[in-house]
């Protein structure tokens, strides 16, 4: 695990510790390759990106919308206030993005496993994370496609299904005042929870303290 990732997860442990009794914060790691750049200095096509996304699997359900554009499936929109992203791109310092509360932040899941027409709207199921911070830096992970047994009943998944990278859309998007960059997600994995790392850190600290007393 890199030092940046460890620091990010340790920070999350501190931030989320008051929520531990009521929430299940988890972190997924997305990696892939940039395939489109528009005026974003320091980022080039074929550069690798890494995004750590932390979210709460017990996030409050704000809206379950069916019909109209989303017919016949259902889009479940959750409270995104607990979502955060750590974006690593060549030529840029690692950027921690947290919700700004301007209505643009999104955490939503779309489940259309019950009934749909592939011919009418083939890309319907998916999971979306999107944040826009106070400095107008935005990032999103968009997973959308036609594998119908990944998302069911509107429940946010704890562990990422490995087939998520096989969806028709598995994209990373990055926006700043200087430009934008886009890439294809190649791998998704779950990393250790902040609480687990915090407990591990306490344990290691205790071991070190005990050892120092013996010297």
Brief account:
The chain is of the alpha+beta class. The chain has one domain (3-214). It is built from 2 helices and 11 strands; from the N terminus they run H-E-E-E-E-E-E-E-E-E-E-E-H.
Jot down its keywords:
215 residues, alpha+beta, eleven-stranded antiparallel beta sheet, 11 strands, globular
Structure, explained:
The chain has 215 residues and is an alpha+beta fold. It has one domain. The longest helix is centred in the last third of the chain and has 21 residues. The radius of gyration is 19 Å and the shape is globular. It has 2 helices and 11 strands, in the order αβββββββββββα. β5 and β6 form a beta hairpin. Strands 3-4-7-8-9-10-11-1-2-5-6 form an 11-stranded antiparallel β-sheet. About 12% of the residues have low confidence. The protein is 16% helix and 40% strand. α1 crosses α2.
Quickly give the structural class: alpha+beta
**DSSP strand (E) fraction?**
35-45%
Strand order of the largest sheet: 3-4-7-8-9-10-11-1-2-5-6
Radius of gyration over C-alpha positions, nearest whole angstrom: 19 Å
């Amino acid at each position: 695990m890199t030092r940046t990732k460890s620091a990010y997860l340790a920070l999350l442990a501190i931030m989320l510790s008051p929520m531990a009794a009521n929430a299940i914060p988890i972190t997924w790691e997305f990696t892939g390759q940039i395939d489109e750049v528009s005026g974003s200095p320091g980022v080039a096509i074929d550069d690798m990106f890494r995004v750590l996304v932390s979210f709460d699997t017990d996030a409050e359900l704000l809206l379950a919308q069916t019909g109209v554009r989303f017919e016949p499936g259902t889009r479940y929109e959750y409270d995104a206030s607990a979502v955060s992203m750590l974006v690593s791109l060549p030529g840029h310092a690692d950027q921690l993005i947290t919700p700004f509360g301007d209505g643009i932040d999104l955490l939503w899941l779309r489940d259309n496993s019950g009934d749909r027409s592939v011919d009418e709207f083939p890309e319907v199921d998916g999971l979306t994370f999107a944040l826009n911070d106070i400095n107008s830096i935005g990032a999103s992970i968009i997973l959308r496609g036609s594998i119908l047994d990944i998302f069911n009943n509107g429940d946010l998944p704890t562990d990422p299904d490995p087939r998520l990278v096989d969806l028709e859309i598995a994209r990373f998007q990055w926006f700043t005042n200087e430009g934008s960059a886009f890439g294809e997600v190649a791998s998704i994995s779950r990393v250790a929870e902040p609480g687990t790392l915090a407990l591990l850190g306490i344990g290691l600290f205790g071991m070190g303290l005990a050892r120092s007393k013996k010297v």
